[in-house]
Design goal:
This protein is an alpha/beta fold. It is built from five helices and eleven strands, in the order βαββββαβαβαββββα. The chain is elongated, with a radius of gyration of 17 Å.
Length: 194
């Protein structure tokens, strides 16, 4: 029986890069992978894009309310692994459907994403992944101070903020930037902005 994996970390920990490396490893061994990304993530459109410069076209851009069930027959006996980027944006139902794929169709499903938003609250998809995943792994990145980063701080026009919609893609019209931070630096930013 295959597993559902959740590999998560703060911004800039290399989630998309790791996903593309796993895809390359499978394909190098003549295995078929399908790369999935939530349509909510508009950065790079229908591609995965890494800060280090590598890119890959996505096989499926999934809508927030779209079901994976329509792909079950197509994936059965033809796909060796499903790789999901930005899994935090998936709904609980979509995560449950991917869990079913791993168990009933014996296809490994490896999800990459953020665990928490800029307010340090779990995303819907991440919460369900933490509940269902057979294996979880935190990918590590560092804060500007050099300590391990676990928080995703949002800056709008260079100002730290804890307000706004849960999802606001970086690079948008409001000059949105996310920075990985350790707990101490995150709290310092909060105190400066109270």
């Amino acid at each position: 029986m295959s597993k559902l994996y959740f590999r998560y970390g703060a911004m800039n920990c290399g989630k998309s890069t790791a996903l593309m490396q796993v895809a390359h490893n499978y394909e190098e061994n003549n295995k078929v992978v399908k790369v999935i990304k939530s349509k909510i993530d508009t950065k790079a459109d229908d591609r995965l894009s890494s800060r280090i410069g590598i890119e890959r076209k996505v096989d499926i851009l999934i809508e927030k309310d779209e079901s994976f069930e329509k792909y079950y027959d197509e994936w059965n006996n033809t796909v060796d692994c499903l790789l999901v980027d930005e899994a935090q944006f998936l709904s609980s139902k979509q995560i449950e459907e991917l869990w079913i794929v791993s168990k009933m169709y014996d296809i490994p499903v490896i999800c990459y994403g953020l665990k928490t938003d800029f307010r340090s609250n779990l995303f819907e998809g991440s919460k369900r992944l933490l509940e269902l995943a057979d294996e979880t792994e935190e990918l590590i990145t560092i804060c500007n101070c050099g300590k391990r980063a676990k928080f995703n701080a949002r800056f709008v026009n260079d100002k730290f903020t804890l307000t706004g919609n849960e999802v606001l893609i970086d690079g948008s019209k409001d000059n949105v930037v996310y920075k990985p931070m350790c707990g101490k630096c995150y709290l310092k930013e909060m105190k400066k902005n109270i």
